[in-house]
Amino acid sequence: MKRGERITNSILEGGLKLSALLAIFLIFLIFIFIFKEALPIFTNPGVRSEVDLRDLFASSVWQPVSDHPRFSLLPLFLGTLKLSLIAILFATPLALGAAIFTAEFAPRALKETIKPGIEILAGIPSVVMGAFALLTLASVLQGIFGWTMRLNAVNAGIALGLAIVPTIYSVADDALRAVPGSFREAAYALGSRRNQAIFRVIIPVALPGIFAGFMLGLGRAIGETMIVLLASGNAAILSLDPALSTRSFSATIAAELGEVVFGSTHYAVLFFIGALLFVITFIINLIANLVVERFKVRLAGVA
Amino acid sequence: MKGWDKFFALASGLCVLVIFAFLFWIIFIIARNGAGTVSWEFFTAAPVEGMTEGGIFPAIYGTVFLVLVMTVFLMPFGVMAGIYLAEYAPQNSRLTQAIRLAVNNLAGVPSIVFGLFGVGFFIQYAGRGLDRTLGLETVFSQPCLLWAAATLAILNLPVVIKTSEEAIKAVPLEHREAAFALGATKLKMIVRVVLPQAFSGILTGAILSVSRGAGEVAPILFTGAAYYLPYIPKLPTDQFMELGYHIFVLSTQSPDVDKTQPLLYGTILVLLLLTLALNTFAIGLRVRMRRKYGR
Questions:
Q1: CB contact, 8 Å: B81 with chain A?
Q2: pTM value?
Q3: Which entry of B25, B101, B126, B285 is 20 to 30 Å from B270 by CA?
């Protein structure tokens, strides 16, 4: 190799490495730049006279646009919790059942239809899912349950659940298929029936992977925006009743940032919510990814 | 199969049925309500009468413009990172693990958080900096297509990194060895032997990210999308209309809900068909690739 070529090569290879390092860099950059806009809550006296940390976490009313704005995150927190809980309760059994069916029961041809089908579901944009919940699902659910509020936590929660089914399914399916065949054979050799092999051997072994899928789904449910914004009714009510209109952290940012004055208290609080969302989902994803990593290493040691 | 075995087969099969029932329900409702609206005029005309009549041409144009610029930002970095992870990264080093963890975590960052990042970093920081340095009034320090595309590129970076890495790793080792045996340097081997073979896999990543980029609304809400524009954006520093955002606008800000409804369903149908077509293509490519390498 000529000297010039060698230098070009190392520059190009350095570029490859830098591109990969970009991922780490971006994680920090995202946190820093969102937190930077939220900083006035802690440092700016003018902003602090309108809101302090106690208000954010202790009071109970979210009313950012008024003569006496009130910024309590509590109703938003409760709303986010309610919505993601419904989504998870709806999605986990369905996704897990479907994963068990594809991994254990479905004949090969059927398997090859189910997987792409669920990928198609994953490809439906969240704004389309939200519009479907707003226009169709809400009316059907109201017809069945007779709720006074057409748009509510159950409606948005179910749409949200549909959006996270593919996430949970694909991770759970990977986990189930990663269980070595020898485990199954051992169970059968000991006289297990199929359901015994599934519930006593395969699922327990795959449990960390299934848990990770659940966590990733939860993370997505907490952060998903457009579905909630369109389908939940967006009232910041401090209540656990799922039949009431509900507002989440994510939808609050989406609904209010467009109207807000740059640098105002409201602006800083919205970025603070963003930072909070980032930290919460980051921790959830971190746990999920570490669990998957360890699960893979452990099974690699066995197989 | 008997007794409990049968029960569990049926119960888990039922889960699949429920999921697919919802999927078909969504597609059916949108197709039935949207089909009447979709016409040549719908694709080629601009919205008129306060968006209660006319078509969605500016939104289609904006969406295409947006994903094109996004792809320009996204693909070089994504593919280069994929090459590094597949060909260079020492497999058990701390750094490689940290990169993988960062990629996976980046994939889980909520899309609205990317939107905030776009405002805080691109518009308020990079945009202001650019305007100050170039002595411009307000060109870069405001929401525009450039920043929306950059935000979407970051959102899609993990998709491209992962699919590229997977595609590159799928290229058989013998092909690499053959290239080395012929005296190629590692970089030359990658460019001449590995990348051409990994092309369809990398393309899958590009298509998936275009599909996602066309459908994501939260990241562009504050970084460049506009309710309505009387003109077609020409420069990346213009604001733009977009299909997903148009759906949001029509379903929440309409002056006359009944009049808007057909347009709304028509727009949803167009976006749904676009993403379905892109995803089906990507899935097809992947299936073909898996067969080719017998996995």
A1: yes
A2: 0.94
A3: B285
